[in-house]
Amino acid sequence: MPEGPSIVILREEAEGLVGRVIEHASGNSKAVDFAALAGQRVVALRSWGKHFLIQLEDRALRIHLMMFGSYRINQRKESAPRLSLGFTDGEELNFYACSVKQVAADLERQYDWRVDVMSDQWDPKWVLKQLRAQPDLLVCDAALDQTIFSGAGNIFKNEVLFRIRVHPLSTVGALPAAKQRALVAEMRNYAFDFLRWKKAFVLKQHWQAHTKTICPRCHIPFHKGHLGKTRRRSFFCPQCQIQYPAALKPARSDSKSRSPRTPPPS
Hints:
alpha+beta; N-terminal domain of MutM-like DNA repair proteins; Helicase, Ruva Protein, domain 3; 7 helices; 10 strands; 24% helix; 18% strand; disordered C terminus; FPG_N; oxidized purine nucleobase lesion DNA N-glycosylase activity
């Protein structure tokens, strides 16, 4: 599933379509009134988290690429597009295997840009407040919560928790205040590292934890599991990533913890 930086790249690649007029629209989406799009001018292209937003004069189109979505600018795939926009100058924008919905044109009232890890309106104090409002939430789930870190995905989760040395099964409320602040700061920092590496086609080369088998700090095997309510894959080091609060050690069985009973006197 494309994460926030990838949607920013899409937005930048399509930026030349701003101000263009839609000549025709088609596709197999059942949530779009294609006839109503003809003659509409593209007012702006925006992104919020994993949403690509095409702002028109009287409405907006929200595209979510889901797990297998893709797009083509001035090109087509053999498969049928979910949404195809053709412009008066012959250019076109095509989306495949994605979710497309019509939403109201006033995007400012629909989205909280303060929690978007890529937004100029990102507000770390507000994000920290949203994070601390859910003290029982596991950090592996908090890192994927789009109401806290819009645009972050599973790569973010694994890489950032490794950076700040926090175990994914820690709870938000048990984290020291410094670790809570570090989580917020590094989610933002990693967003722009991700963007830079993605543009240079070297993103995977910089992964330290995601899909890895050996911890580069401790040189021991990573643990892997589908953790939290999201059940997304987590890769973490059991030695340098600390769990808050500490996990309880399982009690030893009676056969190992006690000496054999003395039989009662006869």
